[in-house]
Specification:
Structural class: alpha+beta
Shape: globular
Strand content: 25-35%
Radius of gyration: 21 Å
Strand order of the largest sheet: 2-1-11-5-6
Number of helices: 8
Number of strands: 20
Helix content: 10-25%
Order of helices and strands: HEEHEHEHHEEHEEEEEHHEEEEEEEEE
Length: 370
């Protein structure tokens, strides 16, 4: 699972070691890469973003205009692949289809650029169409990038118009990441950032933004990144469910144990405790994470952890730690998170063919406690 930056057939897909990932609150050098095609190399001086569809005034915006003509916002949020923790679903529940992501397909970064809301308001949403369809939340904003992909000649995704124009939703046309210009592999010169949503909707190298009455018809919105029902046991039986299953949008509440890892040796303190550390994420826009608990006895009892970084941050992950009392021998450590919306991580989540949205308890098995 690495691939090449210039490959469509074997695109760049990789995640960092989990311990390196949680070594800092902001993800800088250890960000995961997820691509369905070759990395695009564009020029900020010539690239434009077209805004059209059901708008009063179509726009063609240069990068300079996005920087100069719109207020710049800075939003710190976690961006997560829908398949994060797929390996756990595959090994703990049942085989799935897709890249064998571990627990590291997530990054927590500071993004800067104009809000999508401001750009759409400048273009003007056609109210005659919103009235015809009933309410704005039934409309969609689609993003497209002319990136040649494995399954399609372009990449696209969409979100509901209601989310796009909600001021507090903080959807950005990002020009910077962690205080620096975007790198090519992270979408230079401009990408979409949709806090709380699956990373598939935060389209990189965005060329066009379209207000429309239907979801994006791109392969990766319609025939991938969906939690299919359990009856879809292989790609053949999945066929009849693609059109009726909604795309995954809001990511679920989640937590992961980063230390100690499965199979590692963990030394107890004189008080019989082991240091356990990890990260936790809120569900969609239901942040922040308000509590993370750990268990050193397989879930019989739970201990509140200390939230070290990210406390009170709506869109961010939190980094947590706890000194957990654990008996000697091979042990199973667990974690579970709760967010402000009251969403609590459960022991297991629904198995699905594509292995997306897994949020069972964070788990470290066979830890040798000495």
């Amino acid at each position: 699972m690495v691939g090449r930056e210039d490959s469509v057939e074997e695109p760049l897909n990789r995640e960092p070691p989990i311990k390196a990932l949680v070594s800092s609150f902001l993800t800088k050098n250890e960000a995961y890469d997820r691509n369905h095609g070759a990395i695009r190399h564009l020029s900020a001086s010539t690239h434009t973003v077209r805004v059209g569809g059901l708008v009063n005034t179509p726009l063609s915006l240069s990068v300079a205009q996005l920087q100069r003509d719109y207020k710049q916002y800075e939003v710190t949020c976690a961006l997560q692949c829908a398949g994060n923790r797929r390996h756990t679903m595959r090994t703990l529940l049942k085989e799935v289809e897709g890249i064998d992501w571990g627990d590291g397909a997530v990054m927590n970064c500071s993004w800067k650029g104009p809000k999508l809301r401001d750009v759409l308001l400048k273009a003007g949403i056609r109210t005659d169409k919103t009235q015809t369809t009933g309410t704005q939340h039934k409309m969609h904003v689609a993003f497209a990038s002319q990136q040649k992909c494995q399954e399609e000649n372009w990449y696209g995704g969409s979100i509901e118009l209601d989310r796009a124009i909600r001021a507090e939703a903080d959807v950005l046309l990002a020009l910077e990441m962690n205080g620096q210009t975007l790198s090519d592999k992270h979408g230079y010169p401009v990408r979409i950032i949709v806090p709380g949503f699956a990373g598939a909707r935060s389209v990189k190298w965005v060329d066009s933004i379209t207000v429309q009455q239907e979801e994006s018809q791109n392969h990766y919105q319609q025939r991938d990144y969906k939690i299919l029902p359990p009856e879809a046991v292989d790609m053949k039986s999945a066929e009849k469910f693609w059109d009726t299953s909604p795309p995954i949008q809001d990511m679920p509440v989640n937590s992961v144990i980063a230390r100690p890892l499965p199979g590692e040796k963990a030394e107890r303190s004189p008080e019989g405790r082991v240091m356990v550390e990890g990260y936790a994420l809120p569900q969609g826009d239901q942040g922040p994470v308000v509590k993370v608990e750990v268990s050193g006895d397989g879930g019989k009892s739970w201990l509140d952890t200390e939230i070290v970084k990210g406390k009170g941050e709506r869109w961010c992950w939190v980094l947590w730690r706890a000194q957990v009392k654990v008996e000697k021998g091979k042990r199973r450590l667990l974690s579970r998170a709760t967010d402000q919306g009251g969403n609590v991580q459960k022991e297991h989540s629904q198995w699905n063919l594509r292995g997306v949205g897994y949020n069972g308890y964070g788990e470290s098995r066979d830890v040798e406690v000495v």
